[in-house]
Amino acid sequence: MDINQQKEQFSITYVRAIAAVAGYSIYRPEIDNDSVDLGIVSRGGTGKIFSPRLELQLKCTARDVLEENSLKYPLIIKNYHDLRINSLVPRILVVVLVPEKITEWIKQTEDELCLRYCAYWVSLRGMPDTTNTTNVTIEIPRHNQFTPDALQAIIQRISFGELP
């Protein structure tokens, strides 16, 4: 498996762990031609939308993309266009940061399994068109950590017909 495949598998595992702790199910489209790697679904709900869903485009990087208050990630233009549209199921970008060395991606003892480092999310819905032809640098606030609590809050908003 090459490094990009390892990053893809790690980011999927990371999101699966977050979704499991939050109490949600995961689905995976057979073909990713719409910039959707995974979907998350909540059974039932308390809002006006029953079983709200969220779709995710996953990216994983070991690059130095962190700044003091944000993460700046160069997103491929196709993904940018696919994520900014008004889709029926809301979509977000999730960027998983990992250490440079693969051997440092996880730490395991008898007491814990630690996935390193952190994931961040952002909704690009409604972002403006661009004349860029290869990529767009996306700025994600560092407080937008993709955690079980954050995912539950996103799903709750969606259940009431709001955006992530």
Task: Using brief descriptors, characterize the structure shown.
164 residues; alpha+beta; 5-stranded mixed beta sheet; two-stranded antiparallel ribbon; 24% helix
Give the uncertain stretches in residue-range form.
Answer: none
Alpha-carbon Rg, integer:
16 Å
Average pLDDT for all residues: 95
Write down the secondary-structure element order: HEEEEHEEEEEH
Q: Indicate the percent of residues in helices.
A: 10-25%
Structural features, described:
- There is one protein chain.
- With 164 residues, the protein is an alpha+beta fold.
- Helix content is 24%, strand content 29%.
- A hairpin with a 4-residue loop joins strand 6 (106-108) and strand 7.
- Helix 1 packs across helix 3 (148-159).
